[in-house]
Amino acid sequence: MDASTRSSPGPHSPKACHGALGEMLAAAEALCRARGRQLTPLRRRVLELIAEQDHPVGAYELIDRLSAERGRTAPPTIYRTLEFLQAEGLVHRIESRNAFVACPHPERPHATQFFICKDCGATFEIHDQRLAAAIADQAEAEDFAIERQVVEVTGRCRACH
Ligand SMILES: [Zn+2]
Ligand SMILES: [Zn+2]
């Protein structure tokens, strides 16, 4: 996968095609193994359910899907799983939607910006170092210690506008 910090916007999910989804899951598994973490079957399935969608997926959608597949799945189980996937950089939380998207390149931490289509929900992850640097510069000027930054831009995607 492209590990450059700048990637061109594309449909968020690599995953329209199953080959790409399988590769992505295998890469996630290898990444966890290399870090001494375990991508358990549940974690893997949750990642897969998120990755196969083009739109951000909420916790309750996941709970419904998993409960249908494997019997009642308690919300805390899902929240813990989502925390793990976030901590490993495998998914990003879309704050404005309270939902999650799979990261196409989880190998290293990165500042993200998102374009989110308000019609179809398609979400595009971009990494613009200039934007991240501009925010860091302003924070330094204000002597502000950044803990977390969220850049989410809503609008209409190519297919919808
Ligand atoms: Zn990412
Ligand atoms: Zn759209």
What does this structure look like?
There is one protein chain. The protein is α+β, with helices and mostly antiparallel strands and 161 residues long. It has a single domain (14-155), classed as Arc Repressor Mutant, subunit A (Orthogonal Bundle). 41% of the residues lie in helices and 13% in strands. Helix 1 (18-34) crosses helix 2 (41-51). The chain is globular. The relative contact order is 0.16. The structure holds zinc ion (2 copies).
Give a topology summary.
Blueprint (H helix, E strand, L loop, with lengths): L17 H17 L6 H11 L7 H12 L4 H13 L3 E4 L4 E4 L10 E5 L5 E4 L2 H13 L10 E4 L6
Parallel strand pairs: 3-5
Antiparallel strand pairs: 1-2, 3-4
The structure holds zinc ion (2 copies).
Concise structural overview:
Helix content is 41%, strand content 13%.
Notable features of this structure?
5 helices; Arc Repressor Mutant, subunit A; two-stranded antiparallel sheet; alpha+beta; binds zinc ion; single chain; 161 residues; 3-stranded mixed beta sheet; disordered N terminus
What is the number of E strands? 5
> Radius of gyration, Cα only, in angstroms?
16 Å
Helix run count: 5
What CATH architecture do you see? Answer: Orthogonal Bundle
| 3D shape | globular
Please name the CATH topology: Arc Repressor Mutant, subunit A
Helix content class: 40-55%
Strand percentage lies at 5-15%
End-to-end gap: 30 Å
Please write the string of helix (H) and strand (E) elements: HHHHEEEEHE
The small molecules bound here are: zinc ion
**CATH homologous superfamily grouping:** Winged helix-like DNA-binding domain superfamily/Winged helix DNA-binding domain
Q: Output mean pLDDT.
A: 89
Question: What is the name of the CATH class?
Answer: Mainly Alpha
